[in-house]
Write a structure and sequence with these properties.
heterodimer, A: mainly beta, eight-stranded mixed sheet, three-stranded antiparallel sheet, 58% strand, B: alpha+beta, Sulfite Reductase Hemoprotein, domain 1, Alpha-Beta Plaits, six-stranded mixed sheet, five-stranded antiparallel sheet, 17 helices, 18% strand, DUF8134 domain-containing protein (chain A), DUF8134 (chain A)
Chain lengths: 105, 588
């Protein structure tokens, strides 16, 4: 199965098959990107997106609102390809760059 | 590897987009192949159409480029009529109503809720009246900015208006300059105050004189976006007005050939200037792109610059108020809070411009409007018009100094609501906060994200969208910067306050101004005060505080389909919709 995957509008969106699937300016919990156990990351922009297996992951930059660190992340999961569709990661999921996401905070 | 955007542009870009756009409009929104949405929306930008954000699919922001901010007689009414008829959508703004026009920080006009199906009629009406959306967005020559009173300024050094208009006429629609690596923002300034804000443009022509010949020095590589602000750099070139086109075309071609097309985040020419240095930029321009010998830079007027400077010097910081023109008539600069006017007011303003002036109206980079060519004998009657109570030529400094970008109402990148919030800030500050004696210019710029459309880094108080947690809840917040400004020695604001909950920002500003008054030396400006204070002190002076100010937009407005809708969840969104507004469901 081939999917079309890209960032859009100066890093505002992850587009999958020409549909906006994840956006900048949201808060994500991301593990291991600053001094906090889990960063509370305001995603200010999405710089790249790719698929690893079935996981769709985006490289981002932003600010951890817990510690104030400016953060650039590796590929952070935004969702999974499920059959012909896409299942976004839950808003409260903890995401691990290069790994997956789970719903434990 | 070329980016998707570069691939799409190589297939179809520039003028040729138009026929596709009109075909889609004829057949309706659903005729755009679903697997080509991204490509076409990227291309539509070249024709001034920007697909609105999540929850507002099938609706577009439309930008009209007005070179140097000039709306010739009759054009303002046309814009108002188009807004009235076509810029109405499913949402209504509580401050501005159902249809309005935005005057932008680049002297352009933005309308929202535009439907694809209406584009042919809109284009026809615009173009029949000398207006266009061509290259208003996209990777090409954007609207050319300058001093809004070019050609009318009684203190002007060199008339830059013919130069700006000539650049506009030459490079709008020119296939050789259609497809650049990224946006290309040009400023032409002929006045003594620096009103063209060349420092924050990709290419700037600034007034200069050599051997008794008046012309322009050239600077390259300014811009504020992406946490990578740069002031344009002097490339040691002087041009006379008649050579400006060739040099501008040469620089545009240099950018076209040498700019970064592999990474859109590093594509702006400011990064090429970083990499090359100004000497190489000049050398390559001379060797590859200009057919005559470039002259070295001449004596400039930068030590006279006052516009947006934050300095307590003479000269003007904006164009608000009543000012004599070089022909004995007057222009009246009206303050438009956050640059937005409801359509009824726009049409009324068009009538007033006709009745009291020549009908011409001009837009400024501080989101304000000027009525030009008013005879002295008509001034009192114009100033007595009821509309000027809302759009004052003598506003309170907090009203006068407010600028805000589009924000989460429509924009994909913004992190926070901006325009309505800045309106509320300005009103609250006006009612509750005293400015120190003699402070008549105090600029507060609110930008929803790091794209910096509200030019936050060059304000007395810079506000930039962020988030924080308050009582455990995610709320909209702002970073606070201080002491930015242009002028002879431009300076970006120091970001000294981080993630302040939006409802505590007015209190922070009140506390900051009280401290400024307490510590002020003589009649120094706020910028001067910031410059002589260390960062630690400034951080201490930004004391967030809850006050009587109430903020209805603290929740995450980006998660709504429209921040002011009563039923505002994404599931409530009426978009996408057909031409008649009927929502298109996934089952259709």
């Amino acid at each position: 199965m081939t999917v079309s995957l890209r960032t859009l509008d100066d890093g505002a969106w992850v587009s999958l098959d020409d549909e906006r699937r994840a956006g900048a300016s949201e808060l994500w919990y991301v593990a291991g990107v600053c001094g906090c156990p889990v960063a509370d990351l305001v995603v200010e922009g999405i710089t790249d997106v790719a698929v690893d297996g079935r996981t769709v992951a985006a490289e981002t930059y932003g600010t951890c609102i817990r510690c104030g660190a400016s953060v650039t992340t590796g590929p952070v999961p935004v969702g999974r390809l499920v059959g012909a569709g896409f299942e976004p990661l839950a808003a409260g999921a903890v995401r691990t760059p290069g790994g997956g996401g789970d719903n434990r905070k | 590897m070329p980016t998707d955007v570069e691939r799409w542009k190589s297939e179809t870009y520039g003028n040729e987009i138009r026929e596709h756009l009109l075909e889609f409009a004829e057949e309706g929104w659903e005729s755009i192949p679903e697997d080509e949405h991204d490509a076409w929306f990227e291309r539509f930008k070249w024709w001034g159409l920007y697909h609105q954000r999540n929850g507002q699919e099938s609706y577009f922001m439309m930008r009209i480029g007005t070179p140097n901010g000039v709306l010739t007689p009759g054009q303002l009414r046309v814009v108002g009529e188009i807004a009235d008829e076509y810029a109405r959508g499913p949402g209504e703004n509580p401050e501005f109503g159902a249809a309005y026009c935005d005057w932008t920080t680049r002297q352009s006009i933005q309308l929202h809720w535009i439907r694809l199906e209406d584009i042919p009629d809109v284009f026809e009406k615009l173009e029949a009246n000398g207006l266009s959306t061509q290259q208003a967005c996209g990777d090409s020559w954007r609207n050319i900015v300058g001093c809004p009173v070019a050609g009318k300024d009684s203190n002007e050094f060199v008339d830059a208006l013919p130069v700006a208009l000539n650049l506009h006429d030459t490079f709008k629609g020119d296939d050789d300059h259609t497809n650049l690596p990224r946006k290309w923002k040009v400023s032409v300034t002929g006045c003594r105050e620096g009103c063209g804000q060349g420092d924050i443009n990709d290419l700037a022509f600034e007034p200069a004189e050599k051997d008794g010949r008046k012309g322009f020095n050239v600077r390259v590589g300014g811009g504020l976006a992406r946490n990578e602000p740069r002031f344009a750099r002097d490339i040691d070139v002087f041009v006379e007005p008649e050579d400006a086109n060739e040099v501008a075309g040469g620089m545009s071609a240099l950018f076209r050939e040498h700019g970064n097309r592999e990474d859109r985040y590093s594509a702006r020419i400011k990064f090429l200037v970083d990499e090359w240095g100004t000497e190489k930029v000049r050398d390559v321009l001379q060797e590859e792109f200009v057919d005559f010998e470039l002259e070295t830079a001449a004596e400039d007027l930068r030590d006279e610059y006052t516009y947006n400077s934050g300095r307590a010097t003479g000269g003007h910081h904006d164009h608000v108020g009543v000012h004599e023109q070089n022909d004995g008539n007057y222009y009246v600069g009206l303050n438009v809070l956050v640059g937005r006017m409801g359509v009824d007011d726009v049409l009324e303003l068009a009538d007033l411009a006709d009745e009291y002036g020549s009908g011409e109206v001009r837009l400024t980079q501080r989101q304000n409007v000027l009525v030009t060519d008013v005879p002295e004998g008509s001034l009192d009657d114009l100033l007595a018009e009821p509309l000027l109570e809302d759009y004052s030529p003598d506003p309170h400094p907090f009203m006068r100094g407010s600028i805000a970008c589009t924000g989460t109402e429509f924009c994909s990148l913004s992190i926070v609501e901006t325009k309505n919030r800045q309106v509320r800030y300005a009103r609250w500050l006006k009612e509750n906060v005293e400015l120190p004696d003699g402070v008549e210019d105090f600029h507060i710029h609110l930008s929803g994200c790091t794209a910096s459309c509200a030019q936050p880094q060059i304000a007395d108080i810079s506000l930039r969208g962020m988030k924080t947690r308050k009582d455990g809840e995610a709320v909209e917040a702002l970073d606070v910067g201080l002491g930015g400004g242009l002028g002879e020695d431009p300076r970006f604001a120091d970001w000294v306050g981080q993630r302040i909950p939006a409802d505590e920002v007015p209190g922070a500003i009140a506390n900051l101004l009280a401290s400024f008054e307490e510590r002020r030396e003589g009649d120094e400006s706020f910028r001067d005060f910031v410059e002589r204070s260390d960062e630690e002190t400034l951080e201490e002076l930004v004391e967030p505080e809850e006050t009587s100010y109430e903020d209805p937009y603290m929740h995450n407005t980006k998660l709504t389909w429209y921040p002011y809708a009563e039923e505002d969840t994404m599931d409530d969104s009426p978009a996408p919709a057909r031409a008649d507004g009927t929502p298109i469901t996934s089952d259709d």
